[in-house]
Amino acid sequence: MPFPENFFWGGAIAANQAEGAWNVGGRGPAKTDVTTGGSYKEARKVTWIDKDGNPHAEPESRRPLPKGAHYAVLDDFFYPNHDAIDFYHHYKEDIALFAEMGFKMFRMSISWSRIYPHGDENEPNKEGIEFYRNVFQELRKYDIEPLVTIWHFDTPLYLEEHYGGWENRKLIDFYAKFATTCFQEFKGLVKYWLTFNEINNTVMFLSLEQDVTNADYQRAYQQLHNQFVASAKAVQIGHAIDQENNIGCMICGITYYPLTSDPKDILLNRHNWEQNIFYCGDVQCRGNYPTYAKRLWEAHDVHLEITPEDMVDLDLGTVDFYTFSYYMSTAVTTHENNEKVGGNFSMGSRNPYLEYSDWGWAVDPDGLQYYLEMMNDRYQLPMMVVENGLGAYDTVEEDGSIHDPYRIDYFKKHVAAMERALDHGVDLIGYTPWGCIDLVSAGTGEMRKRYGFIYVDRDDAGNGTFDRLRKDSFYWYKKLIGSNGEELD
Ligand code: P53
């Protein structure tokens, strides 16, 4: 029996992609609330008004707005995160369905701007706290352990506009205050926390933007440093408030391969691991910058503002466990002649040994095994796969059933990969597949890119009843959990 007895089977969502109720209960807006829908080929747009009052809609970018401009919700645009799947009003029904599948763990995030609408207030918004307390209590009713992401891509819009976002060191203290409120208010209800979702995206996905300059790298690495310090402070505060707290990091886990055996490709591959994957995990798990950091910074003429106290914080605030998302692998090469993938947020060269999803993501269960074995050896910490799954088009039959054998097949192969890793001694303690209930895609803003075991009746134009339906994969996952990973078929 490879899966340990108390293995955390479950599922995962994030506040901004599921809750909706974007302006209900005193919540302030986040950047996702001024972000439109998009598709595989068409990037989501962020809407804003310039200093002369002219409206703009431009592809999402990490660059700040021009001087005097401000983000705005404009008529004529659809903002899918505003209502999302209305988890805010459906959480009881949804948690009952999770319990029916036998979930032991449920990963969710707390919307910062529900707790601090602007982010810099002195007092938190009581209604926001009440909402999450109710959700946690509902989970406890079914013995489902919450795993809470403190930040999942949703910095309050006010902090973005008035402080310039994470580039500004003041965000460290605002975040620390937000985290402190969460640890205090939810003490006894929540014991597993993640400080930042896919913290490495900031640098990893920079290359997807156009005309990336050294100034962009400078900003990205400084933002990351500020988030590292914020994370390390949160770990220390969380431990001080409750010794029972387990606080982890969360890395976007993409497995990198060299496309050829050319030593230049092997080296390029290693450097990709360092810049895109190891860099963040090394700081958060080891409490210090790795030696290759200097090389990464020098490559883009990056000069970071790092105080001596920051280094003390990083050292004292290392995480208790390592978590990551895993959807795909990617192949890199120094050679020109090869087919590029060009998928949605997926880069690199086409790997001839793999199949690709409808959104251009390489389906690669061996890559998950590789990642688990490598990271377990690197950090020797307990690990969780906190996102994994297949975004796919689903069809509802006339009788309301949804046949998704493609999804079941994807999960079977990835569960088998985890089993092999466990067999090899990897300390894997949990698995929370992404979008266990359909939700708004982060990358494209689509509803039609569905991940769930549970279908939500909602489309890309904002139509639908929000009704929940069980897919075939719902029954498959229920059986898998019931047999603690034994019954794959
Ligand atoms: P969507 C890109 C590549 C890998 C993971 O992604 C990513 C992204 C960003 O789109 O993000 C994570 O919704 C993220 C979730 C997100 C999920 O993967 O684009 O933590 O918020 O929904 C899947 O299909």
Annotation keywords:
single chain, 489 residues, alpha/beta, 14 helices, binds 2-(hydroxymethyl)phenyl 6-O-phosphono-beta-D-glucopyranoside
Your description of this structure?
The chain is of the alpha/beta class. Helix content is about 35%, strand content about 15%. The chain has 14 helices and 15 strands. A hairpin with a 5-residue loop joins strand 2 (about 45-50) and strand 3 (about 55-60). Helix 2 (about 85-100) runs parallel beside helix 4 (about 125-140). The longest helix is centred in the middle third of the chain and has 28 residues, at about 215-240. The two termini are about 15 Å apart. It binds 2-(hydroxymethyl)phenyl 6-O-phosphono-beta-D-glucopyranoside. 2-(hydroxymethyl)phenyl 6-O-phosphono-beta-D-glucopyranoside binds near residues 197, 198, 325, 327 and 443.
Chart the SSEs and their pairings.
Blueprint: E1 8-12, H1 15-18, E2 45-49, E3 55-59, E4 70-71, H2 87-101, E5 105-109, H3 112-115, H4 126-141, E6 145-151, H5 157-163, H6 170-185, E7 192-196, H7 201-204, H8 214-241, E8 246-258, H9 263-286, H10 293-299, H11 308-316, E9 321-332, E10 355-356, E11 362-363, H12 365-379, E12 383-387, H13 405-423, E13 428-431, E14 454-456, E15 468-470, H14 472-482
Parallel strand pairs: 1-5, 1-13, 5-6, 6-7, 7-8, 8-9, 9-12, 12-13
Antiparallel strand pairs: 2-3, 2-4, 10-11, 14-15
This protein binds 2-(hydroxymethyl)phenyl 6-O-phosphono-beta-D-glucopyranoside.
